Amino acid sequence: MNLEKFHTYCLSLPGTTEGFPFGENILVFYVMGKLFALTDVDAFESVNLKCDPEEAVELRERYDAVQPGYHMNKKHWNTVLFDGSIPDKLLLEWTKKSYDLVVKGLPKKAREELAAQS
């Protein structure tokens, strides 16, 4: 995975914006103002993604490159290391799941606004 491909994919998801609230090297992707992914643009060695708590544990047990979310709520977030063991397709699937989890938790009005954008 390279930064350009990841960046393009995230911004292709409806209602997605980006920002640097944690400094100039931590890129955060939001859907309707709620965070769903973040990564260090200088190193681009990993990404933090929201995850269903049960699935988060499963993924950590199954993949060495999946760890509890660094500087995040470890129940709901995983850090995925870009060590070459996770195929790009799978990483993008997990990114979409993170996005979908955040969308699911949005207030009804925000979900309706998002649906109107799609």
TrEMBL record:
SUPFAM superfamilies: YjbR-like (SSF142906). It comes from the Bacteria. The keyword DNA-binding applies. Pfam families: YjbR. Keywords: DNA-binding. GO terms for molecular function: DNA binding. Coiled coil: none annotated. PANTHER family: CYTOPLASMIC PROTEIN, CYTOPLASMIC PROTEIN-RELATED. This is MmcQ/YjbR family DNA-binding protein. The lineage of its organism: Bacteria, Pseudomonadati, Bacteroidota, Chitinophagia, Chitinophagales.
